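Something for you to look into today, if you have time. Just paste the record in under my message, thanks.
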Amino acid sequence: MASTTAAKSGSSFGQTLQFITSIKLQELEKQRLAYYAHAKIIDEAKILGDKGDIIAKVELLAKAVKSWTGSGSLPSDKIVGGKLEMRTLEFWLQQAKKDPSFSHEIAQGWAETLEAHIKHTGMRFDCAKLFGTLFNEWLASGDSSAMVYQAGDDSADVDSMASNTSSDFVDIGRKEMYEQKEKLESIIFDDHPVDVEELKAYLEGLFESEDAGNALDRLRKELKDQGYSLQRKPILRRDVAYAIKGLLASGLMDEEKRTTLKAFQENPTVLDEVASVLNMRMAGLDSWAWPKEGILVEMRRHLNGKYRAFTDPEIIDALLLHHIGVAWQVKLKSSLRRLFDGKAWNRSFVPPTHKVKERWTEQLRGDDGSSSIESRRHNTRKTHFFLSQLTDEASRPSRYDDLVDAPEQDDGTISPAVVKQKLLHIMTTECYLNKALDGTHAVIRSDLEWFGPSLPHTSILTVLEFLGMPRKWLSLRNALV
């Protein structure tokens, strides 16, 4: 019994290692090919050297070294070859251009050092590919301690019977599923033209005032800084754990992939390896794209009878995109909340001045208006309704699920069901208040059908660009659709 359990544990670990290694090899091959395409700059530099323009050759090679952002990229303060400091090279090149007595032998030495570095980095990619291939073959051979567990004949027979039984049943789905699927396809694939200039003019009109303009400038700077730091910040083990937790809470993945993610959670070594893969993909984010064959979209029926479309990406793609999406969610929510609290936001009431607050404090026994009805309305709206579907922290994922009836989660997040209950309580309170003050109260409810899927991607990209999201990230957003 114990040996069987140990064998299955070894099997799971070995299969996981093989899975991670295969993914790393795929990413490594992408980066290797991209680097060799990037390293062709050596041929251009050789032409410049043959013409006798050594300084231009050094400039071209230095630019090639600095511009590479994938695996093996060079920090700005790195010393190449133990003798060439990249941070000061630009100043030396400027002096070499203006000083006729500058030794060309020194410049030639710089060129040789940079060229050797480029070739050495390419060799490192080749060696890493060779080692990864050998390691994967070793795992698959069964000679490793993480050898694959081979099930007995009985289990094979059971699996065979189960597959035969399941193959006899074909779920063709309900009529409503096909109707909603057809509607979704028309929304996604039909062209929905957007007047971009009109949309930009509308957005600019929202920030016409001086306070609004200053708030927009601050927002754009924050988003620019976020875009710069996000790709350069390494993905750690805890980031992978947060991404797995968020994916499991979202209900996006199928049962098989959910089981794999749960297995990842239990193994710190696997989390480190996944983090390594994600860092490789983040480094080559400019060339990221969906698989050529596309991804599966599954229509799932909820208890209320409605169908929703769920994508089924590969695990690594799902983790990477979830990590990036949540990072932008957290930043956008914090930045827009500051905008919501600032002077740029139009409120239904005029915020009291400092002098008015002092008078209220004297007249209301220390209350400066922070407990007033309007203040409570503002705080409730900000806390529970403003951007409520965006998460506050990566470690506390928000769930987009109106069927979750649990009250508050253990991590302090509030479920969609509780948000609806709070809304009903507020509506009831407002009804009693208005009937007591004015004798009448009216409630208007609207439902924008297919609102989320029907938003044109052009509108989304235009709004994000206006708010200041860098073009690199807009390009990734464009690649997603």
User: Anything to note?
Assistant: The longest strand covers residues 296-301. Confidence is low (pLDDT under 50) at residues 1-12, 145-170, 402-408. The chain has 19 helices and four strands. The first helix runs from residue 2 to 38.
